[in-house]
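Workshop exercise sheet. Pairs work together: one partner reads the sequence aloud, the other fills in the structure field after running the prediction. Swap roles for the next sheet.
Pair: D.N. / O.F.
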Amino acid sequence: MTPTLRERAHQHARDLGFTLSSNDTVGRLLAVLAAAVPSGGRILELGTGTGVGTAALVAGLGGRTDATVTSVEYDEAVAARAADNAWPSYVALRTGDAVELLPGLGTFHLVYADAPGGKWTGLDLTIAALEPGGVLLVDDMTPLDRWSDEHRVNQAAVRETLVTHPDLLTCELADGEGLVLCTRRAG
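Structure field:
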């Protein structure tokens, strides 16, 4: 039996010792959010990793080919492993700094921010890339004992920006390492 995209992405993570992949609950939420993207919609993932979250987004789209998924990974070795998967033609994997790439990527109906670039730095660019009525999901929003002081400061600043941003409606979800789900107000 041929492994699924998600199974292959998990295997790549194990091979690399990559421990930052999205958990299964986040994956299910990503699939649900991707399924709601309108016809012709655009999805952006910041932090491809080995493609576990990307696979969840693809699963949520089902057999649809009317939407696109763009995923950005900073680490070249990790991005190379993600690229070693049989992604559908509507998936574009980009390697580079999200903060540098975001201004040229356009706007999106769904953005999943799971990497420092576009979250700890460049959050304003990530919010600007969100279509009116679009959804932003930010991962790693619950402080953990293993986090550095710098990580805690960054997390707190991101959380504060999201919950007080005048263009966003925000809901905090207590799953895994914490999620903040936002919708950009239309108009």
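Discussion prompt: The radius of gyration is 15 Å. What would you look at next?
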